Backbone:
């Protein structure tokens, strides 16, 4: 009897300690987002717009598309200007030179949520190293999916190789017509999804541990590294594993059918915090949104000029 009571007390104590630790991690994460949002506001003051999600250019060599990400633009406003010393904006791929010591490989604690299960950081991607981030800019109703991506959020591709239209321009605060306190600026990314990883292990998709490079330099699909959206609910996870792929709706008969689910997962805001994720609004305020939030409401918060009424939230 005594042993059972002691065991119960220890279990309760362990649970309380774990809860306290997670609460502290969540507070740290919220502070990270607050600092990134402040940097974005300061950037806007200096440049009269928010940074591009990914400013992309087309090259004649491989990879054909290369760019500069929103986090690279923000680093000088986060007291991280030294990271950008000798940064090559003309040929961004050169920033990956130097192995684990490359400029793109710098690990920035302020860009990592302590509850995010990133894995290796910096991440080795075909002998090019990248520091990872747990956060993404608000890409509106859809942040990923080639020319299907939206431009109704705050961050998307800009420049000569932007999609869905070339030469898209970054967003200024005067374009946020729904109110800065009711429009998302940034949110969290979750790198945990065992069902999704089962497909990655069979080369149907890319592992989540390879998504979220703050430098996001090479390739047209790299917008997925630095933006997220309301295309899927908060904390969306693949609802079936590889062995149960026959239960998928729409059907999943071949690896190329997985693109639909890849788009959903790579767009989704999420976190390692129980029940939801942290977000920063355009005005710099930070809030925790429940994973039970209706997708229509998340979409309204993600668009900058959808005409939603304040009371709807």
Residues:
């Amino acid at each position: 009897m005594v042993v059972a009571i002691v065991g119960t007390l220890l279990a309760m104590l362990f649970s309380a300690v774990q809860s306290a630790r997670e609460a502290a991690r969540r507070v740290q994460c919220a502070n990270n987002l607050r600092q990134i949002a402040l940097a974005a506001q300061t950037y806007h003051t200096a440049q009269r717009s928010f940074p591009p999600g990914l400013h992309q250019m087309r090259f004649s060599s491989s990879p054909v598309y290369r760019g500069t990400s929103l986090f690279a633009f923000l680093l000088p406003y986060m007291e991280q200007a030294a990271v950008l010393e000798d940064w090559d904006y003309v040929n961004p791929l050169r920033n990956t030179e130097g192995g684990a010591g490359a400029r793109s490989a710098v690990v920035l604690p302020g860009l990592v949520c302590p509850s995010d299960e990133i894995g290796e950081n910096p991440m080795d991607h075909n002998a090019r190293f990248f520091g990872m981030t747990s956060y993404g800019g608000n890409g509106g109703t859809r942040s990923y999916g080639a020319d299907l991506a939206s431009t109704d959020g705050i961050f998307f591709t800009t420049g000569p190789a932007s999609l869905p239209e070339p030469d898209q321009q970054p967003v200024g605060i005067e374009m946020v017509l729904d109110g800065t306190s009711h429009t998302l600026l940034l949110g969290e990314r979750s790198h945990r999804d065992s069902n999704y990883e089962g497909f990655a292990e069979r080369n149907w998709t890319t592992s989540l541990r390879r998504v979220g490079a703050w430098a996001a330099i090479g390739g047209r699909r790299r917008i997925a590294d630095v933006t997220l959206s309301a295309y899927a609910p908060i904390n969306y996870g693949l609802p079936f594993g590889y062995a149960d792929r026959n239960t998928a709706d729409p059907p999943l008969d071949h690896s190329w059918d997985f693109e639909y689910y890849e788009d959903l997962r790579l767009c989704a805001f999420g976190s390692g915090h129980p029940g939801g994720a942290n977000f920063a609004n355009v005005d710099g305020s930070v809030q925790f949104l429940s994973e039970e939030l209706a997708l229509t409401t998340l979409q309204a918060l993600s668009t900058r000029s959808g005409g939603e009424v304040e009371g709807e939230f």
